[in-house]
């Protein structure tokens, strides 16, 4: 089976864009991606779109053109964008299509996400106790992880410091001012051990990726980025995930570990062969835990990695090179696709001041959503 290729990318800046609807941010990203690929909207044979709070993606055909294109909406928590991409690449792998698009956008209101217990099969008491407020769940989970594996609060701060440093060089990022470690650690506490600078914020933005079969990419004369793997998994028994009301005595794996292992197997490479990684960092501790869950280090090794700068732009494994969710914010429908956008830009060598040195050839992305859904992609040029 031939590779699926990414031949065009487009992005609408993340953050807050007053007066611009979420769907119009998605349309902007689509037009940018079409221009980048050198194709027209009527050429697109299918589309998968993701949005959580800004309307149905398929309605963007009113703005792009009524071509009769097959357009399917995807809603899968914070992993919606990654799930849209997974679906899009499967459409091309089926052999029925040669050219399609994955697009995601969102426009969230200010404040924390307001999930309802019933939507996740949980009793009312779980929400009444405050555990549907994700800042509290994330804080409790990382406190346990820190105690088990010797991770210090300084490491949480180093993740955030890196995010703001990288985001300063990403034109699409929301937070573009570096913040020093001491300021991050001394900032007002939101949920112990997290200060306000250690969380991402709900945001706005849009991303679109044009996918093509290898044959179509050659026909168009593109220099494609190859999608060597795209996987998506849900949680196994015993997995401790968002909105889990308790921890099983007998622990299993995680959705992330399953998706990661499947992606490496599909790509035929291992974690030590990845040059760049974008990992879900809804909060600083998530990046730390996901370093291990995705197979890049053992639990507890993150403390030394971060102290040594191993995940910096010039480190042995640059992580979240555009600042991740912490610097960019998280518009749910677009966030997972932003990671892939960033990896494409890096592999093309077009990332400017945040460009990873050493001519990177492989890139990894991982997005995670409630109540335990993960999607992973591996790119190669």
From TrEMBL:
This is Thiolase family protein. It holds the Pfam family Thiolase_C_1. InterPro entries: Thiolase, Thiolase-like, Thiolase_C_2. It comes from the Bacteria. Residues 254-378 form the Thiolase C-terminal domain.
């Amino acid at each position: 089976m031939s590779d699926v290729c990414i031949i065009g990318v487009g992005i609408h800046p993340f953050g807050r864009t007053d007066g611009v609807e979420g769907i119009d941010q998605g349309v902007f990203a689509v037009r940018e991606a079409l221009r980048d690929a050198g194709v027209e909207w009527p050429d697109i044979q299918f589309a998968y779109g993701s949005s959580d709070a800004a309307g149905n993606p398929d309605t963007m055909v009113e703005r792009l053109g009524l071509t009769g294109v097959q357009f399917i909406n995807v809603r899968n928590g914070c992993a919606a964008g990654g799930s849209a991409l997974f679906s899009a690449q499967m459409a091309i792998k089926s052999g029925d299509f040669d050219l399609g698009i994955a697009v995601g956008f969102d426009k969230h209101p200010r404040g924390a996400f307001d999930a309802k217990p019933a939507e996740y099969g949980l009793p009312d008491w779980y929400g009444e106790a405050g555990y549907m407020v994700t800042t509290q769940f994330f804080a409790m989970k990382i406190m346990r992880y820190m105690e088990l594996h010797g991770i210090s609060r300084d490491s949480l701060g180093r993740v955030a410091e890196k995010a703001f440093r990288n985001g300063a060089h990403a034109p699409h990022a929301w937070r573009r001012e570096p913040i020093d470690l001491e300021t991050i650690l001394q900032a007002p506490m939101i949920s112990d051990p997290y200060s306000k600078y250690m969380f991402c914020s709900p945001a706005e933005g849009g991303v679109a990726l044009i996918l093509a079969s290898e044959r179509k990419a050659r026909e168009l004369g593109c220099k494609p980025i190859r999608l060597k793997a795209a996987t998506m998994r849900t949680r196994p028994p015993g997995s401790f995930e968002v909105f889990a009301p308790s921890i099983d005595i007998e622990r299993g794996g995680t959705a992330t570990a399953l998706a990661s292992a499947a992606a490496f197997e599909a790509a035929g490479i291992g974690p030590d062969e990845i040059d760049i990684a974008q990992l879900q960092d809804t909060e600083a501790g998530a990046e730390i835990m996901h370093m291990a869950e995705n197979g890049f280090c053992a639990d507890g090794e993150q403390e030394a990695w971060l102290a040594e700068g191993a995940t910096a732009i010039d480190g042995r494994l640059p992580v979240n090179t555009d600042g991740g969710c912490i610097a960019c914010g998280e518009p749910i429908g677009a966030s997972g696709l932003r990671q892939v956008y960033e990896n494409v830009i890096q592999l093309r060598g077009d990332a400017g001041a945040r460009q990873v040195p050493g001519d990177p050839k492989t890139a990894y992305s991982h997005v995670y959503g409630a109540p335990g859904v993960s999607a992973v992609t591996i790119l190669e040029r």
